[in-house]
Amino acid sequence: MVSLGFDVDGKRIRSKVSGQTKAEVKDKLKALHSELDAGIRTTAAYTVEKAVADWLDEGLPGRAAKTVEVNRDSLRPLLAIVGTIPLRDLTVQDVRTALKKMAATHATRTLQKAHNCLTRAVRHAEGQDLVRRNVSALVDTPRGREGRPSQSLTLTQATSFRGVPVEEIARLAGHASSRTTEVIHGVSCVP
After folding, report:
1. Structural domain range at position 18
2. Model's pTM, two decimal places?
């Protein structure tokens, strides 16, 4: 049992550790003393999901509601994997594994956004002395799936329309009930 000081009523705040062997209890006490010396004050109930919720509520002051919602949506697949892990127990390997699982089904840009948001959320918790170090910052973002192909014109496609007025392309697209890009790419179905 370790004394953590007194609460507002003057009652002593204590933290207990337990284990199956004496050595296990000693190790847990050393870890608890180490956290106390570092100024860390967190519990096993403070999960990654709660840290993210705190960051979304408090760590984005002055941001538009849409920005907060975009960040929440970006983190949703990542939190499905690591959300229940206590923040103090989150490891570099946990983050790396979660990002690799996400990489199988998401684009690289989505992975970058999710990883960035997780790193910022853990940094927010680190600033409140709820975690010792930001393990998310130590992980490189893996490459995800290829995104959809670009709908921009290639150089050859663009040069083939040199001299053709834009109005002519738009008129042709209107007559064919097609989008302008479909006419340019030649995939329009003209009856």
Report:
1. 2-38
2. 0.63
